[in-house]
User: Which sequence fits this backbone?
């Protein structure tokens, strides 16, 4: 369990963003087929929101580790995973 409030918040946000990033691709056929262009816009917006939340969670996690001296191994692992996935998913925003 992370020691600081910032660490707990970043861990929860990272886990939620990772889960959202995993679920959103399955929503593409459900949104795009019946709704067309509006569904595609909703899909892209959801995907961008999940990516931005993941990047914010990674930044918050590194701040909690570096500045607040949070020494939780769980926070470290979640922050490393969030950073890796965030870097891989950043090109999808452009």
Assistant:
């Amino acid at each position: 369990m992370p020691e600081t409030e910032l660490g707990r918040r970043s861990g929860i946000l990272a886990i939620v963003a990772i889960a959202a990033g995993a679920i959103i691709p399955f929503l593409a056929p459900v949104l795009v087929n019946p709704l067309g262009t509006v569904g595609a816009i909703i899909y892209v917006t959801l995907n961008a929101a999940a990516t931005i939340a993941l990047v914010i969670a990674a930044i918050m996690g590194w701040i909690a580790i570096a500045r607040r001296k949070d020494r939780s191994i769980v926070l470290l692992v979640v922050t490393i995973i969030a950073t890796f996935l965030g870097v891989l998913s950043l090109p999808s925003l452009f």
